[in-house]
């Protein structure tokens, strides 16, 4: 009887250790997967930041999500806009980039264009009105933002 009890205890301990090991392996695999995803996002954003349109196209043609956000809530559209890469902005918009996505500070790509005085890009981005969401959530509208930066007159010229 004692040996049967010993066998049962050893089996339970072994199963318990196996379950713990399997759980640890799953956690480690999740970390590796997350790390790989972060590296891809970093590469996508680097391409947007530097205007490497060919790399952007490769990512998007292979199904990479156009509106993926980094830790600050930035999108590739925001990065390409901020750094003045109109061709990349056009490519991202052609692949369905959402102009109305806001970063953690509540800013859109158009707001980045205003800050950097990228008026050709701003005109392209202004074709969609994102202010309805802003009014509902208490965030700055595009006009309010432009006024803060002393660019309201320039923004109004885009409508002409």
Automatic annotation (TrEMBL):
<keyword id="KW-0040">ANK repeat</keyword>
<dbReference type="Pfam" id="PF12796">
    <property type="entry name" value="Ank_2"/>
</dbReference>
<protein>
    <submittedName>
        <fullName>Ankyrin repeat domain-containing protein</fullName>
    </submittedName>
</protein>
<feature type="signal peptide">
    <location>
        <begin position="1"/>
        <end position="22"/>
    </location>
</feature>
<feature type="repeat" description="ANK">
    <location>
        <begin position="72"/>
        <end position="104"/>
    </location>
</feature>
<keyword id="KW-0732">Signal</keyword>
<dbReference type="InterPro" id="IPR036770">
    <property type="entry name" value="Ankyrin_rpt-contain_sf"/>
</dbReference>
<dbReference type="InterPro" id="IPR002110">
    <property type="entry name" value="Ankyrin_rpt"/>
</dbReference>
